[in-house]
Automatic annotation (TrEMBL):
<comment type="similarity">
    <text>Belongs to the eukaryotic ribosomal protein eS24 family.</text>
</comment>
<dbReference type="InterPro" id="IPR018098">
    <property type="entry name" value="Ribosomal_eS24_CS"/>
</dbReference>
<dbReference type="Pfam" id="PF01282">
    <property type="entry name" value="Ribosomal_S24e"/>
</dbReference>
<dbReference type="GO" id="GO:1990904">
    <property type="term" value="C:ribonucleoprotein complex"/>
</dbReference>
<keyword id="KW-0689">Ribosomal protein</keyword>
<dbReference type="GO" id="GO:0003735">
    <property type="term" value="F:structural constituent of ribosome"/>
</dbReference>
<dbReference type="InterPro" id="IPR001976">
    <property type="entry name" value="Ribosomal_eS24"/>
</dbReference>
<dbReference type="GO" id="GO:0006412">
    <property type="term" value="P:translation"/>
</dbReference>
<dbReference type="InterPro" id="IPR012678">
    <property type="entry name" value="Ribosomal_uL23/eL15/eS24_sf"/>
</dbReference>
<dbReference type="GO" id="GO:0005840">
    <property type="term" value="C:ribosome"/>
</dbReference>
<dbReference type="InterPro" id="IPR012677">
    <property type="entry name" value="Nucleotide-bd_a/b_plait_sf"/>
</dbReference>
<keyword id="KW-0687">Ribonucleoprotein</keyword>
<protein>
    <recommendedName>
        <fullName>Small ribosomal subunit protein eS24</fullName>
    </recommendedName>
</protein>
Amino acid sequence: MDVDIISEEENPMLHRTDIRFETTHEEATPSRLSVRDSLAAKLDKASEEVVVHELDTKFGMRKTVGYAKVYDSAEDALDVEQEYMLDRNKIGGEGDADAEEA
């Protein structure tokens, strides 16, 4: 899967960069997690610092356009992002909840 960055916009107040990207794929629309991992690898960031918000594939096309937020650290992502978006991107959550219950 090829990931091309269309635009980047710095957002220093929230310690992140907003990114619009396009990915080309051979088969079905890729999963949110595989796109997140590919985008993180391209930007030399950890997967926990990348939050994919939007993936849009037109019917029959092999291109997907998306929107992601790349944070300076995983802690910044946990502080700013909404819970459902963190759940969708599998950031935080599971290990932390078990630790709090114990």
